[in-house]
Each structure stands twice: as C-alpha cells, then as structure tokens.
C-alpha cells in the first residue's frame, strides 16, 4: 500500500509577477504533435533556464520544454514518460536520481553533489520525482543540458525546472478523481482566487492510494 499526501500553499500576486507566466513550449516531438493538433504554428517559447524569464531562442543551451497542455497531448503522466521525450535524460526511480547524457549522482548521500540540479519554482530540491505531477499542479517542465551553475548549484550535467500553476484573480476550483484496479484511487483538488486587492492565493493538494499489488 502506498499513500502520499501533499498540500501546496498560496502565493501572492507579487510572486506571480516574479515567476514565469503561462509558457507555450514542448520538446520537438511534443511541439510537433501540438502544432498538428492545433493546426497552427508554435509561438515564442519562454523559459527560466537562467532563472529569469527569457525567450528560448536567446538561451545558449539545449533545452527540452513541456507545458501542461502539451504533456496531455503527448501522454506524459510519469517521470519515465518525460525521459521518452527528452533526449539524453534518464531517471532511476529506485534512488530518485536523474541523469543527463549519462551524468548524475552516484551516491545516496544527500550531501553529495547532485550533478543534475533540480528546482521547483526556482527553489532547489533533492530530486525531480515530482515531474509526474498532473497539470493541476505543474504548468511547465524544463530540462536544461549542462554544465552550468545557474541557481547557485554546480550542475555538471544540467538542471531541471518544475514550475507550478499560479494563482488566478478570477475564482477557480477543480476536483478530479481516478479509480482503478488494485484498489487504486487518486483525488486531486485546487482552488484559486483573489483574497484582497493585489493579493491572490491558490490552494491545491492530492491524495494517492493503492491498497493492493504494485
């Protein structure tokens, strides 16, 4: 039986202004699928590879970018799915280590250099295991191939950025439920809106449960 619970708290609109807005990007494969689906062209891609909002064309590194919409089109629902669309990116779920071009952490000691730096909303985190969160939580995922030291951490292989969905001024609420075999059920919910002039907030959480099997 596996149970996981995560609650994400709110952010002010000042944080919203400082973070990345809705970006329209994907890897070449997902991008092509999205363009074919929409019957049009892809607009300018906006990323935070240098931890500031920048046009993808101005970033001098190789980047794979996935927006929430294009993750749905490509069928990306797990970290393993991400590895299928991001060239050179692999992931070991046993020790939650990420590798880019074969380079990554070789030790389970948390004090050792990760070599692939992972960030969630520009905050350093231990592992990119949360790349599998649904579009109710993540608005964009980026895999930047290194070497680099953006964000204050040396990253010999590159870095990974996970960008959360931001609060909205208009009231919004959504709940999702998934039921499957092995006594599995998932519940996800989010609510967002304006608390006061100039202050917006978003509350989201999930509960994943599987009672039988693996």
Which characteristics define this entry?
214 residues, mainly beta, Ferric Hydroxamate Uptake Protein, Chain A, domain 1, 2 domains, five-stranded mixed β-sheet, four-stranded antiparallel β-sheet, 4 helices, 14 strands, disordered N terminus
Characterization of this structure:
The protein has 214 residues and is mainly beta. It folds into two domains: 1-19 and 167-214, no CATH class; 21-164, TonB-dependent receptor, plug domain (Ferric Hydroxamate Uptake Protein, Chain A, domain 1, Beta Complex), CATH 2.170.130.10. Helix content is 14%, strand content 39%. Helix 2 (28-38) crosses helix 3 (68-74). Mean pLDDT is 75; it is low at 1-42.
Could you give the topology of this structure?
Layout (H helix, E strand, L loop, with lengths): L1 E7 L4 H6 L9 H11 L7 E2 L6 E2 L7 E5 H7 L4 H7 L3 E4 L4 E4 L2 E2 L11 E5 L2 E3 L12 E8 L12 E7 L7 E9 L3 E13 L2 E12 L4
Parallel strand pairs: 8-11
Antiparallel strand pairs: 1-14, 2-3, 4-10, 5-6, 6-7, 8-9, 10-11, 12-13, 13-14
């Amino acid at each position: 039986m596996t149970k996981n619970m995560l609650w994400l708290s709110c952010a002010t609109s000042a944080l919203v202004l400082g973070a990345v807005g809705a970006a329209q990007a994907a890897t070449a494969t997902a991008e092509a699928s999205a363009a074919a689906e929409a019957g049009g062209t892809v607009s300018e891609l906006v990323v935070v590879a240098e931890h500031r909002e920048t046009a993808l064309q101005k970033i001098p590194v190789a980047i794979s970018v996935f927006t929430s919409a294009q993750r749905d089109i490509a069928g990306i629902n797990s970290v393993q799915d991400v590895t299928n669309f991001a060239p050179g990116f692999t992931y070991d779920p046993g020790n939650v280590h990420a590798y880019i071009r074969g380079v990554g952490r070789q030790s389970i000691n948390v004090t050792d250099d990760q070599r692939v730096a992972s960030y969630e909303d520009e905050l350093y985190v231990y592992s990119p295991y949360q790349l599998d969160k649904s579009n109710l939580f993540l608005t964009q995922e980026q895999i930047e191939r290194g070497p680099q030291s953006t964000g204050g951490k040396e990253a010999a292989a590159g870095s990974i950025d996970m960008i959360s969905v931001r609060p909205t001024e208009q009231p919004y609420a959504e709940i999702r439920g998934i039921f499957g075999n092995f006594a599995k059920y998932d519940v996800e919910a989010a609510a967002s809106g304006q608390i006061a002039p100039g202050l917006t907030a978003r509350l989201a959480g999930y509960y994943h449960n599987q009672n039988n099997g693996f």
